Amino acid sequence: MAEFPHKEPRTEAFASAHTGEQLEQLSGIAAKQPYASQGPWLTAGSLQLLQTAAESGKLGRFGIAGKAAELAPLVSAGLLTDKGKLTGQGRLITSPWQDSVASLRITAQYRGRASVFQAWLGPEGCLVLAGPSYDQFLAGHPQAGHQLDFLALDHLYPDIAAWTGIAPAWSLASEPLSIDLRTVNRRFGDETVPVPEAADPVLMNMWRQPWFVWQLLLEPGSGRPETFINAGESGHYHLAVAEDRAELNVRPSGALYRDLSRAIDRAVHS
Q: Which of 41, 54, 201, 216 could form a disulfide with 94 if both were Cys (CB 3.0 to 4.6 A apart)?
């Protein structure tokens, strides 16, 4: 029997050089675990029709007059009838709008482009409206509008992780560095902003990665959003702010995922 040559895994260049060990390449895993939903993509006009129907149960002739284009995807998805009446499935899916126990909003930006992930958590499940995700921005084809989905609570956590690109990464220890907040804010939309002085090699490498910046706000909660930076091969960082200074703290993917699920559980059961 012919022997197959052993194929060594690709190494993560910076992490391997920094640690002096051959570390397997983990960057790229997020792209292989993209955010996936079977729900329809809806425009702002279609969402407005759905919200109006969810409040009153139907739209009527005058409510749908001149809005055939906005109505069509809702009918196709089985949420409204062609007369503008909310279907049984439509009532179930939109129920968290009327009877939510908690809600969350993630606002994100990548190279100057913005997106939003919203979820309302109700007794029957979670209503999700998701704009373009991390992997779609990286692939260069973010789609306009929001994708509607309805999930069990247990499925919400992996969906958020996929949407924000939480994935295995070599989260290397770095010296804490206080940075002028205005510099960090400029860096959000401009990758040419110079690396801050006194940054160690780990932070320098992180600074040079493409940033997907996302901010999580939970209700009920503290009322203060938490900001994170997905820095590609450098993994995730938490952005801590005090007055006009900012500090970037590495957050391993597993720990961040647990933080996220615990925070949502607290909001649901508070």
A: 54
